What we know:
Its cofactor is pyrroloquinoline quinone. The protein is mainly β. It is built from 2 helices and 36 strands. The protein has one domain (about 20-520): Methanol Dehydrogenase, Chain A. About 5% of the residues lie in helices and about 40% in strands. Strand 32 (about 460-465) and strand 33 form a beta hairpin. The protein is globular, with a radius of gyration of 21 Å.
Amino acid sequence: MTRFALMTAMLCTxxxxxxxxxxxxxxxxxxxxxxxxxxxxxxxxxxxSPLDQINSSNVANLKRVCTFDxxxxxxxxxxxxxxxxxxxxxxxxxxxxxxATTCKLLWTNKYTPTGPQVLNTxxxxxxxxxxxxxxxxxxxxxxxxxxxxxxxxxxKVNDSANGYFLSSAPVAWNGMVFVGEAxxxxxxxxxxxxxxAKTGAQKWNFDMIPTGTQVGADSWKxxxxxxxxxxxxxxxxxxxxDKGLLYVSVGNPAPxxxxxxxxxxxLFTDSVVVLDAATGKLDHYYQQIPNxxxxxxxxAAPVLYDIDGTKHIAVATKAGYLFGYNEATKSQTFxxxxxxxxxxxxxxxxxxxPICPNYSAGTQWSGPAFKPGxxxxxxxNSVDWCGTVKLGEVxxxxxxxxxxxxxxxxxxxxxxxxxxxxxxxxxxxxxxYSTPGIRIVGGVTTTGGNLVLSxxxxxxxxxxxxxxxxxxxxxxxxxxxxxxxxxTYTVGGxxxxxxxxxxTSKGLNGVKNVTSRVAIFTLP
Length: 524
């Protein structure tokens, strides 16, 4: 390293002194305008910013001011997380800190795996008290100094040789870090965990595949020893700070398609499980699909919102439905088909069952957003795209996919992306924006400027009028597919928009690899 480079590196490190966010800042993250602290902005998962400097009357003037290219063409499904003018980004085995106005690289952290990496996708961090927390493709939870990028501790959560990995963005709360395992499609029995934020010591765990005398164990009427479990935690989590309740979306059972090997409802798969965040004890749950036979995960985190003093949640699934629940009565308020649904009540056959959507469609890793106002609007992205599912051999082999069949996808040209707005109380559709032949799998963001922000698989960032769904702005991010989300925030009183683009994972089959990048926009 040259003397100049060494001095520059030292200056970058010394200039980046990150002490927070504090617990009070995290508690207010849903309302904050100068930050985007969690994968879904705040604990309630609303992805709503009250910022209105960029609004429906001027968004057409947005200009890109900088781009940070990671140089990696792997999966990229994060929303940039912003604190004190710094954007934190995770991808594969690397984590980055960049200036949130200039895209200048501040530091890079490189993780070296110690076991096989099952699926090397990271959907972001938890950040608290100057520390970033993220999972890895070989099922480790690591803590990184947010100021220097130095790894502080490394905790092995489970054995990745058996199919376990951590893809979801953890959540930090009251000195604990919450994270759940993924790997259902490889035949794991997933758990949700809480770890001590300072030491990495495990505080509690919860079995998403109950056994023995645990609640839900009788929903697994196991036919033979090949029955396993499943229950991945894929994305992130939602938390009710007032009640200390953690909302966890849980994915499919395994084997994915061979339902006959696991008769019963198969709790807690395809569910939202609500836990006491302090103890890990079950409070209540909502199951969206009993005995799922089509890999229709409840994958994305639910959104929590208030209507007339009563808390509600909305959650979207890969099956193409949006569900609403009243938290006061613990009852379902609506179930809306966001896209075409076909043969979901039927089980796969050896000959093949045509279904809509296929397992790469519906709502994948990006859940609904909320916009307060007259309609308490819930906005969700979903892909309309069909396929055929077939039963096949059921054999569990350590570290290999455990489908019990196969799914053929219809031509990608038939896929239609959708951004749809609903009344958060009734589930009534308010408007729809569709992109025939172009999938939409990234995150949705709503703002006080009456905007809905998102992006499509052809690399197009777009802004819609939140009242009508009318397109107000489009800009292509170098043809890099947008599988991540949009963050908006202020630095020095000026509003910025940052979007992650470059995803090449399952939800975007057939899309040309483009290196991942974060593009930052603002008004001239």
